[in-house]
Write a structure and sequence with these properties.
Elements: H1 2-43, H2 45-66, H3 72-131, H4 136-169, H5 171-190, H6 192-202, H7 205-252, H8 257-269, H9 276-288, H10 292-316, H11 325-339, H12 343-357, H13 359-364, H14 366-371
Helix pairs in contact: 1-2, 2-3, 2-5, 3-5, 7-8, 7-10, 7-12, 9-10, 11-12
């Protein structure tokens, strides 16, 4: 009897390790598949954008078909032309305006340095008075830190200049991307049903069911969430654009309204940070340099944006995907390190997909689900 119990325990241990290895292999394959999917998505970005644009123009297509009694093909063609014309015009005007503001800013950098220099010199001299009585090692560290900050600013400015130069050189490539995206949008919109059937026909029924389940449980939630996030970003951008324009019109002379609105809206989209990351230091610097009135105006704008966001966010983001902001921030950072700027978007999306795939394991405890041992029979007859 004792031998049978021991033999049973050995079998159970083997089954346990088989199950652990199988689950680890599953997790590994999921991660590999997602990394490959992200790489393919980056490589096939025009087609991914075409799918998103088709999803955006669906209401317009339905309007033409139901209200104007047009055929499917004509509705799709008119919708694509209309949306691309509107978006193309807005993006083109925005790029020209941003380029103009950035150029003016670069030209006026020496003037800004001259205006800030007296205050900076005064602050540094006061700091030096404190450091003069300290040991030489601390003083050397202080001056080294100042030099490092200066070198960092110069290096980042050089990097920005190089990026702008690369962007200008790559204009033909960007044009090809735009043409491919437009054509892909048109073809996908015209033959959407046929394309779905072709893909479904190539896969086993079990795979098709799994893809539908993942789409229903994960991708729809991601799409709804991203739509809500971009809506909030757009509202924040409009608030900044209107608010900064008013501040400029009443005589505070903000020369880069559009550029500041775009930058702050993008920062506001990042987890944890928010628009206060830019607006509050800006207001503090203005107050230190003696521009109290403009500092108050910027701070009031920050309060208005914060209050409006608190009011609209619960209504727009009606559901929570349950991912903590620090996890989202970590996903954005890892995505950025692996795939560049596009990784800022694909990083969080990958986390949302992983959360949907491993929902049961996360509910039980991810590593507990993998490594928890079954109860071993320890009864040994005397």
């Amino acid at each position: 009897m004792k031998e049978k119990v021991e033999e049973q325990n050995v079998v159970e241990q083997k089954e346990y390790w088989k199950r652990v290895i199988f689950k680890i292999l599953q997790v590994f394959l999921v991660f590999v598949a997602l990394i490959l999917a992200v790489k393919c998505a980056v490589f096939l970005l025009p087609f991914l954008i075409a799918i998103i644009v088709n999803w955006i123009i669906n209401p317009v297509v339905r309007f033409f078909k139901e209200k104007c009694k047009m055929g499917h093909k004509l509705s799709v063609i008119l919708s694509v032309v209309l949306v691309i014309a509107v978006l193309g015009t807005l993006i083109t005007l925005g790029i020209f305006k941003l380029t103009d503001e950035v150029y003016d800013f670069v030209v006026q950098i020496p003037d800004y340095v001259d205006s800030i220099l007296p205050t900076a010199t005064l602050i540094l001299s006061q700091i030096e008075e404190v450091f003069i009585d300290l040991p030489d090692t601390i003083t050397e560290k202080y001056y080294d830190s100042i030099n490092d900050i200066g070198n960092f600013i110069i290096d980042r400015a050089a990097d920005i200049a190089k990026s702008i130069g690369k962007g200008i050189i790559s204009l033909p490539e960007i044009l090809i991307y735009i043409i491919v995206t437009i054509l892909a949008t048109l073809f996908i919109g015209l033959d959407k049903t046929y394309i779905k059937e072709i893909f479904a026909h190539q896969l086993p029924d079990k795979w098709n069911k799994t893809i539908r389940d993942v789409y229903d449980n994960v991708f729809k939630a991601i799409i709804a969430y991203m739509k809500a996030v971009f809506t909030i970003i757009f509202i924040t951008f409009c608030e900044l654009l209107v608010g900064l324009t008013i501040i400029d019109l009443i005589g505070f002379n903000i020369n880069y309204v559009l550029a500041v609105a775009v930058v702050v809206a993008i920062v506001d989209a990042l987890p944890i940070l928010g628009c206060g990351t830019v607006l509050i230091p800006w207001a503090v610097i203005l107050a230190i340099t003696g521009n109290i009135s403009m500092a108050i105006a910027i701070f009031v704008l920050y309060l208005v944006i914060t209050v409006v966001r608190q009011l609209i966010e619960p209504k727009i983001v009606s559901h929570n995907i349950g991912v903590h902001p620090i996890i989202t921030l970590l996903a954005m950072f890892i995505g950025f390190k692996l795939f560049g700027l596009i990784g800022l978007i694909f990083g969080p999306i990958t986390v949302f997909i992983l959360k949907g795939i491993f929902a049961k394991q996360l509910e039980k405890g991810f590593f507990r689900d993998i490594f928890e041992k079954p109860k071993v029979n320890k009864e040994i007859s005397e």
